[in-house]
Amino acid sequence: MMGKVLLYDTTLRDGTQAEDISFQVEDKVRIAKRLDELGIDYIEGGWPGSNPKDINFFKAIQSETLNHSKIAAFGSTRRAKVTPAEDSNIQMLIEAKPDAVTIFGKTWDFHVREALRISLDQNLELINDSLVYLKERIGEVIYDAEHFFDGYKADPEYALKTLQAAAEAKVDCIVLCDTNGGTLPHEYPAIMAAVQQAVSTPIGIHAHNDSGCAVANSLMAVDCGAVHVQGTINGFGERCGNADLCAIIPSLSLKMGHDCLGEGKLATLRSASRYVYELANLTPNKHQAYVGNSAFAHKGGVHVSAIQRHPETYEHIRPELVGNRTRILVSDLSGRSNILAKAEECGIELDSKDPVTLEILEDIKEMENRGFQFEGAEASFELLMLKAMGKLKQFFSVTAFRVIDTLRETDQEPVSEATIRVKVGGKIEHTAADGNGPVNALDSAMRKALVGFYPQIADVKLLDYKVRVLPSSQGTDSVIRVLVESGDRDSRWGTVGVSSNVIDASYQALADALIYKLYRDSI
Known about the structure:
Elements: E1 2-4, E2 6-9, H1 25-38, E3 42-46, H2 52-61, E4 70-76, H3 88-95, E5 100-106, H4 109-116, H5 120-135, E6 140-146, H6 148-154, H7 156-167, E7 173-178, H8 188-198, E8 203-207, H9 214-223, E9 228-231, H10 245-255, E10 258-259, H11 269-280, E11 297-298, H12 301-309, E12 327-328, H13 336-345, H14 355-370, H15 378-388, E13 397-406, E14 415-424, E15 427-435, H16 438-450, E16 461-469, E17 480-487, E18 492-499, H17 502-522
Parallel strand pairs: 1-10, 2-3, 2-9, 3-4, 4-5, 5-6, 6-7, 7-8, 8-9, 11-12
Antiparallel strand pairs: 13-14, 14-15, 16-17, 17-18
């Protein structure tokens, strides 16, 4: 195992600058506690001088006990016309009582002249005296060299002088920032070598993803001697995002031999990723490296057949190492190996020579030709297998339903009502329900009709509902696919319906969701 690389998370500050992301103080505290459990070394809580929410976070986190992580406050060097003692932003950093302070300064001469509008020498002074002042009052001080790579390319001598001004203040780490995200990995070795000749302070990296290279650049920086890596969970961040710690951490640990998290912590990486997505109210990126749902998902029959024998044939690591799992997808590309593997995953015994296996395969191909998709609708696929094997009880049948959408006044919302007739055993239940739209009305009516027979139906919640109009030249008569995600207190499952009628497609998916719940509770 190689040396320790310190992990610095800025999800709560840089991550919140992303479009569509906003955390309340309570969310930030919960995320900080989850990152502490993961084993992150530094958690940047925000910029106390920029907004009341960040000030409140630092107050709130004081009452929490963290077992590993240090809380860092972020800010800038002093303003040009005041001393550090007179600068309100620097004073607020101290008042926040963090374990560490990170401040950024200008390293690009273009920014010094155009943004700060001061001389290059004045910029060196404000970097140095800001850091000296903070180092005397805070235990640990980190310096973020903003726009370092662009600054170095424009004027190498001056960019290195800014780092020397920070090093002379005896900061604990100098972080090289690719703020605009435009540097490529092959540029790192020469620039890092020049930095290490100029200063002896430990070096860190803070990369943005505007060229799609943030993770690669971070790993390259470590390979060139960086011992501190900044990033965000899931790569959240401004524009194209920051370096994704969910890719950096396992790459450092499993592929480069660096100590990052404590023992057993890496296996909690996926759950930490999902936790942050949940609090951000964002749908997880299924194609995200290491932790995404599709990261170890296999669809082609050749792939599935191979990984059944040796997972390493098509998986670069064992997914369990990061808390993920192998998934077998079924589609019109599937071979028998997919069906057998998926059946095994569902706890269903199928024989490769059984004619039922071929029947299921043909059913899938025919249904996908009509527009069905079983990726993300595993529950519908499991029900398909059970029906083909004659192992699925008929819990209920819907003999009729009607949905009425009525617009009574032009300035009011339409009123939706659904009536449904279901048969359970020899009994028929005929009922009606209102809803917030026709699909909700139908869902409510179906549940209302069934709950008397199956009380556990009340536990099922509709978690997500997606409608997609499939490619067609039929305009409003096109085929529609509905994907529904449902869940109870223990798990989640996906179901699918396809029809030229959106209500019918919705009914198929909703009915499958309830049937799957009843089947699972019966075994």
